[in-house]
Amino acid sequence: MNRKFAVAAALTLAAATVAFAAPTKKRGASAMAGNDGGPETTGKGAKILVDQMPKTGQQSCLMAPGIQGASLIGQCYKKPRQWIVLETKYTTYGTETSKFLDQLTFTWHVLLETKSAKENKGNKEKLAPYSYFTTSMTYFNIPAGSHASSVVLPPSYLERYGEAKAIGFEISNQNGDILGGGTVSEVKGIPADSKFWEDPKIMDAQIGGKPMIERRQGLLDRSKTIWALVNPNDYETTLQ
């Protein structure tokens, strides 16, 4: 069995993974379909609609924004480099007593695919087929209206570990109630709207006695990077 087929077959075996069929229902939370088919959730006095899911693959690879005066400082890299920029847009509706929500936490889960790495052709390092990253950020004082949540990976991650092929996130309030979320995926065996990060058949899968997924660190809230300068009003205060 060749390696490419084996990888696909191993992940396909996990097709029964936990799904986002409905957001976790705690303390009276309930769910319904949004007008555009996206997840819309009412829970503990909050109503949230996910308007746009993150983009996978090359669609999420972007050049860093330029800044005025950049030509006055040294430039180490002459060749343009790309970042992985993942973003979801959502709408909040406040509560019966206030247009503001106290806080929302977004927990992100991202799989990069090694074979798509920009500067690691042929995988000479013999890295695992996929790399897994996760991080959380909490937004405070969210007014009713449209907002965005975004995480990024610097160029070296794209170059070494590859493009984002499966991306999931969950939205929770200060009590830990899951108000919504979703998953997009190009990986065979990881369906859209599945919680692949909770499924040991996926996360602990092996091929040839070696793990298919390696857990790594490095996923950043956009506010800690150059991307904080782009449309800053779309993002609420975070203390990550």
Main features:
single chain; 240 residues; mainly beta; 7-stranded antiparallel β-sheet; 6-stranded mixed β-sheet; 15 strands; 9% helix; 40% strand; globular
**What would the average pLDDT be, to the nearest integer?**
81
Main β-sheet, in a few words?
7 strands, antiparallel
Topology as a string of helices (H) and strands (E): HEEEEEEEEHEEHEEEEE
Structural class by secondary-structure content: mainly beta
Spatial extent as radius of gyration = 19 Å
Beta content: 35-45%
The shape is globular
E-strand count: 15
Number of discrete helical segments: 3
User: Which regions contain 5 or more consecutive residues with pLDDT less than 50?
Assistant: 13-17, 21-43
Number of domains: 1
- Helix percent reads under 10%
The rounded distance between the terminal residues' Cα atoms is 45 Å
